[in-house]
Design a protein that fits this description.
Length: 119
């Protein structure tokens, strides 16, 4: 069986079109995002400190919800994840400064799925 040049060109075009992405985010979970053994002290607390505690700490935390202690973060984790994983134009998205990167969101979710270990 012989392939004609148009068949080879069609095959190459189909293969090339099937392997393009506008950005890495369109692939879903970033391939370099480690979600194994996500730890509270090493991963979750720094994320919360950098993106949540600016408003949710101190004597009068936003919405009366402080995220300074493990129990507070673990107790509100599902709500926090819901707020982190909203569309960028949703007024309930947190942090208000803008949507977190997908790896941070996936890692936070993995911590919840692992039972929210205090490690």
């Amino acid at each position: 069986m012989r392939f004609t040049s148009w068949a080879v060109a069609l095959f190459i075009a189909v293969m090339a079109a099937g392997c393009t992405y506008d950005d890495l985010e369109s692939l879903g979970t970033p391939f370099d995002c480690n979600t194994i053994d996500v730890g509270y002290g090493a991963d979750i607390l720094p994320l919360v400190a950098d993106h949540c505690q600016g408003c949710h700490s101190g004597g009068s935390p936003a919405a009366g919800i402080g995220f300074e202690e493990y129990a507070d973060i673990a107790g509100h984790a599902e709500t926090m994840l819901d707020r982190m994983d909203r569309s960028p134009d949703d007024p309930l998205l947190m942090p208000q400064s803008g949507k977190l990167d997908s790896c941070s969101i996936v890692r936070f979710s993995a911590w919840i799925d692992a039972g929210k270990p205090n490690n």
